[in-house]
Amino acid sequence: MWLTKFAPLALLGACAAHAPAISQEPGARVAWRDLALESPAGRAALRQRVADAALGYCREHEDEVTPDALRNDGFHCLETLRSAILAEMPADIRKAYARALMEAGIRGRRL
Fold it and tell me: How many structural domains compose the chain?
């Protein structure tokens, strides 16, 4: 009797033990909590972290995420990823990032 109650649990454990590992989607993360965003140096560091994250991601995954029609556009992946990173940030962090771009004199498609 105990076998009929315990067997399903044993089989469930056997299935879980041999389950394939779930691959994680590639992504980019930017930490900002350690930055003093009220200072120009802190905002510049935030801008650099966003640029580094976008450049690193696109260096590895650009061929996978850029549509064929846009392969000649060297900024497509960078702009898309930067937009995705900024979309995840709280509004005050986005404002600090925008201010950092202004302070650095960056306009247009540059990171």
Answer: 1
At 1-16, the pLDDT tens digits run 444 555 555 555 555 5
| 104 domain residue, yes or no | yes
User: Which residue type, as a one-letter code, is found at position 57?
Assistant: Y
Instruction: Report pLDDT digits (tens) over 38-87.
Output: 999 999 999 999 999 999 988 887 767 666 666 666 677 888 889 999 99
Is 4 part of a structural domain of the chain? no
Amino acid at 49: R
Domain membership of residue 87 as a residue range: 75-111
